[in-house]
Amino acid sequence: MNEKANYGNWVPEKALYMFGAVIVLGVIAVAVQVALSEMVIAIIVGVLCILTLVMAIYMLICHEAFAFGKGNMMAGVHEHLIKHLDWDGEGKLLDIGCGAAALTVHCAKAFPKAQITAMDHWGVDAKIEGVADHIAFQKGDAAKLDFPDETFDAVVSNFVFHEVRTAKDKRDVVKEALRVLKKGGVFSFQDMFSQKALYGDMEEFVRILREEGISEVHYIGNLEKKLDFIPGFVTTPWMISGMGIIYGKK
After folding, report:
1. 241 neighbors 247 (Cβ within 8 angstroms)
2. Cα(222)–Cα(245) distance, integer angstroms
3. Which long-range contacts (CB under 8 A, 24 or more apart) does 37-41 make?
4. CA 104 to chain CA mean position, Å
5. What does the DSSP 8-state code read for residue 88?
6. Exposed e or buried b per residue across 158-183, where buried means at least 16 C-beta atoms within 10 angstroms of its C-beta
7. Which end of the chain is more exposed for a tag (fewer CB within 10 A), N or C?
8. From start to end of the chain, where are the E strands?
9. In angstroms, rounded to a whole number, what is the distance separating the alpha carbons of residues 192 and 197?
10. Which tens digit of pLDDT belongs to each residue from 144-196?
11. How far, in Å, CA of 153 to CA of 193, rounded?
């Protein structure tokens, strides 16, 4: 089967279509104002159209950079996460906030013996990737995982915790992820950890996790400035800013 899974994109296609629609409407508006001899309004609308076109081109370039099978930047982000998961692949792994299951499938291929649970608000068909036999999809809330303490041997998550609206303090989402990890189990989480508005002082948070019994915790901040596969034009406040990883062993 040559069909490829659609894993979505950091820049949704709907956003690109929206920009296109706005530009078309703007061009029509300019034409109408010119026909009415309202040149000042036509110029203002024309300038706005040009600015929108510039932003649309920028968003399209970013979309192509993120896309799997094209720029492959997100594939590199997933690979970076997995490289920091010190695991032999024996046992159960949880992917929190799996989305379209891109990271889930990557983990399934990296750890073919693992039993993987992918948790989000919807399920995904991974059969076309040939890994469906050891992936189970489950709906859930990352702020209150529907699993007993110490259920999994490994836990991963990628750019999810900051989006969990049911948790005011995003640190609590990290702690909840660690709750379901077995003692001695490993974890690797990537998120906007370097954004103080979301996570505060990460060095302090690392100390707190250690005090609460996490035996090994490592933190690397501002990854967008350190990973050579992330192009500079996406390291903006409205794209990727303050990316970090925490990983280690419980």
Report:
1. no
2. 9
3. none
4. 12
5. -
6. bbbbbebeebeebbbbbebbbebbbe
7. N
8. 92-96, 115-120, 135-139, 152-158, 181-191, 216-220, 244-249
9. 10
10. 999 999 999 999 999 999 989 899 999 999 999 999 999 999 999 999 999 99
11. 23
Give the pLDDT band of residue 233 (cuts 50, 70, 90). confident
DSSP 146-202: SS-TT-EEEEEEES-GGG-TT-SSHHHHHHHHHHTEEEEEEEEEEESTT-HHHH--H
Q: How far apart are CA 70 and CA 63, in angstroms?
A: 9
How many CB atoms are located within 10 Å of the residue 75 CB? 19
What is the CA 88 to chain-centroid distance, rounded?
Answer: 24
Residue 42: pLDDT over 80: yes
Is this structure's pTM higher than 0.85? no
Phi, psi of 188 (to 5 degrees): -150, 115
Rounded mean pLDDT of 33-55?
Answer: 89
Q: CA-to-CA distance for 57 and 60, rounded, in angstroms?
A: 5
* CA atoms of 58 and 157, how far apart (whole Å): 28
- What is the bridge-based pairing of β-strands 152-158 and 92-96? parallel
Residue 161 CA to residue 87 CA, distance in Å, equals 22
